[in-house]
Amino acid sequence: MGETTILDYEAEAAHYDETRGGVPRAAAAAEAVLRLLPPGTRTLLDLACGTGLVTERLTRPGLTVYGADAAHAMLRTAAGRLPGKAVRADARRLPLPDASLDAVSAVWLLHLVPFAAEIVAEAARVLRPGGVFVTTVDKDAAHDVGSDIDAVLRPHRASGAGSDRADRVTAYAAAHGLAPVPGTAFTGYGQGTSPRGTAEKLRAGHYASWFHGTPATVADLAASLAALPDQDRPRPDPAYRLACYVKGAPGATDTAGPVTSDGNASPR
């Protein structure tokens, strides 16, 4: 993931897949990435590949897929899914020459780190002209699905939070010759939260990227969440947005509109 993350991914590796939506969410993410690859794409590097659950689903005839992650424990699992094609690497300093890849993907990465600009710059460096950088954006915002849980949490969401905010990522991309083109979206299966589960995650500090309240605030929010009905019923799954940037494509514009209820991007 890079050397600085919110969670300890060495410790998370053993149970990462089952707590992140498993195969359904991974398959949806991979299918969305593949939709954005130009015809003739031959090589793809999946940054922060984790256990390789998404990465192995990116393979298709004629496309060679590699995975990179900074966590040893994650890579041990990824290596079994990507034999000979998983490498330990910091996403800011990839062991690759300039202009050596057709595509780079970063799914659920930029929101975790304070150095998103460096990752985008490195992706641009290793892409060939015409290559694409595909990345999730606005991940934290996607988790506000308009539920009763969100009504409780919304006043406590940090204003302007998110190192993966789409406008910021687009600015980072532009600085390195990457122009936005139409993106897409996909459903985050298994990521809908319940009131009880949300309270537990708040107490454990899982929302550090957007929540900066005190222990007293956490206690108040937990009490409000405990008052909601259906304590263990997950609310709707989020729809994640994938942005796409092309190297050396001046004049292109991002025409992917807001996410619709079916998880697709609607036209503006």
Assembly category = single chain
**Structural Rg:** 18 Å
Structural class: alpha/beta
Tally the beta strands: 7
Q: Taking all residues together, what is the mean pLDDT? A: 86
Contiguous low-pLDDT stretches (5 residues minimum) are 1-21, 250-268
What is the CATH architecture descriptor of the domain at 9-140 and 160-191 and 237-247? 3-Layer(aba) Sandwich
Adjacency order of strands in the biggest sheet: 3-2-1-4-5-7-6
- Percent of residues in helices: 25-40%
Succession of helices and strands: HHEEHEEHEHHHEHHE
| Percent of sequence in beta strands | 15-25%
Taking the alpha carbons of the first and last residues, their distance comes to 33 Å
Query: CATH top level of the domain at 9-140 and 160-191 and 237-247?
Result: Alpha Beta
Largest sheet: 7 strands, mixed
Shape: globular
CATH fold group of the domain at 9-140 and 160-191 and 237-247 = Rossmann fold
Total number of helices? 9
CATH superfamily of the domain at 9-140 and 160-191 and 237-247: Vaccinia Virus protein VP39
